[in-house]
Amino acid sequence: MTAPAPFTVAALYQFTRLEDPASLKGPLLAKCEEVGTMGTLLLAKEGINGTIAGGENAIAQVLAHIRSIPGCAELDVKFSTATEPPFSRMKVRLKREIVTMGEPDIDPRLSVGHYVAPQDWNDLICDPDTVVIDTRNDYEVATGTFKGAVDPHTTSFREFPEWFREHREELLEGKKKVAMFCTGGIRCEKSTSFLRKEGIEDVYHLKGGILKYLETVPKDESLWDGECFVFDERVTVRHGLEQGNYGMCRACRRPVSEEEQASADFVPGVSCPHCIDERSEEQRARYRERQKQQQLAKKRGEIHVGARAEPRKP
Questions:
Q1: Among residues 32, 72, 182, 188, which one is catalytic?
Q2: Nearest C-alpha neighbor of 92 from the set 136, 162, 38, 56
Q3: 186-224 as b/e, with b when 16 or more CB fall inside 10 Å?
């Protein structure tokens, strides 16, 4: 019998009006530290977003605390597991947006696209009247995406509105519906709200995101190709939300495949094929020292926080 994974991972978000996010930060961080969770939670006037990991009971206590905040009772949470700590510390941060799009008039509480359950997603994206758009960034799409999806080649979600406006005509040529997806659903809340504001009515998004699809749709029925990038130490997950095969380059924080890890350009903690020509020898010297300190800390049974890459931003 396989032993249960020791860490429960909870990816969560809620769009709601928080009048004073700063007043919520201290009590929320205190609860997380009290029960021993790790991860990052973002608070803004538009709501809460983040991912935390810990024991099952610890996660339950933090979620109960969040749901007690006015407006957060319907908190959207997706669970998975990890065998190793997916985060090295606990942070609660104040932000202008819980997912940064840079469009101040977009409010998912007022208008979003049509939610599509994972079991109905295949029919929608196979419809020839539908254009399917991956709203994630280039380093995420590189590890996997839905077959036939359009890749915007963005490096941050803030670039999405300009990209869509620039390519709108060609994207919608001969199409009646737009279907969009992201990792856990939160970016699609904003991207579908944005398209509605741009005058497009037949907009759809995958409820629960890729994570819910990989959790619920059998592999032999799946239209997902590859693995799904996640913003923690697991790097990617596969069907059933099992940890994937990608590693992380600690120099540039890009995911690296097994083939790329076999390259001479891949030196753990120092370089990878993506960044080998982007960093100076001085920078790589610092990375080597950082990697050395991490290994020494590991031998002592400690976590060298500075050696772990901060999660990339959506």
A1: 182
A2: 38
A3: bbbbbbbbbbbeeebebbbbbbbbbbbbbbebeeeebbb
Does 308 score more than 80 pLDDT? no
CB-based contact 260:288 (threshold 8 Å): no
Judge whether 252 counts as a catalytic residue: no
- What is the DSSP annotation of 106-153? --TTT---EEE-HHHHHHHHHSTTEEEEE-S-HHHHTTEEETT-B---
pLDDT at 226: 97
Task: List CB contacts of 200: < 8 A, sequence separation 6 or more.
Answer: 172, 178
Are 221 and 137 within 8 A, CB to CB?
no
Identity of residue 8 = T
**304 token code pair:** 């060298």
* pLDDT at residue 297 is higher than 80: no
Can you name the residues that pair with 164 across neighbouring β-strands? none
| pLDDT, tens only, 5-46 | 689 999 999 999 999 999 999 999 999 999 999 999 999 999
240-269 tens-digit pLDDT? 999 999 999 989 999 999 999 999 999 999
**Complete domains list, the chain, with CATH:** 7-94 (3.30.70.100), 114-228 (3.40.250.10), 246-307 (no CATH)
Give the pLDDT confidence score for residue 305 in this predicted structure.
55
pTM: 0.89
Residue 232 DSSP SS3:
coil
